[in-house]
Fold Response regulator.
Amino acid sequence: MSVRVVVADDQEIVRTGLTMILDAEPDIEVIGQAADGLRAVELARRLRPDVCLFDIRMPGVDGIEATRRLAGPEVADPLAVVVITTFDLDEYVYAALRAGARGFLLKDAGSALLAQAVHAAAAGDALIAPSVTTRLLTAFAGAGPSGPPPQPVDALTDREEEVLGAVARGRTNTEIATEFHISLSTVKTHVASLMAKLGARNRVEIAMWAYETGRAGHRR
């Protein structure tokens, strides 16, 4: 089964380029394109793609607001959104992640990383450009909602603390499994447990919680 993608960018040449790169993948299919956020939201709600790939800066409804409408906390059945941008501006990206984006990339990330991010989002995982993960989350650890970060429903186990730190460092499930010498299914179980305990919807929110509570550097 192909991963179905909607691409939104206000520059036609960029939309065309992204579409060509994704369509060249044997298991990815671009099913819709939009030049602004409002059209992107309409398309996504009608087509229900597996992944939405949105530029942040678009006229009218921008990528952040489009993300919030499709994946925000109030959305009952959120779609997977990956933000892609030319502008390495932390405040925009952090706002997109807060709005529910499952990850983000810079437009110079390359075709391989782009395809990897789409596959990760479709699988319920998240991919954040490694070059900016730590800087982004560290710089804006205190920029979230006012008040202290929510406490976990139940205390985290030692292994969950380790996995939490690895997720915050941008590690994939496969990399975490290798680092801690555990199976991939065990990693997924730990990540699911973290989401449940922290009330997080995805790995991005797990990572942000880790930074907000000073746990991002936790290692065994």
Observations:
- The CA atoms of residues 2 and 149 lie 38 Å apart.
- The chain has ten helices and five strands.
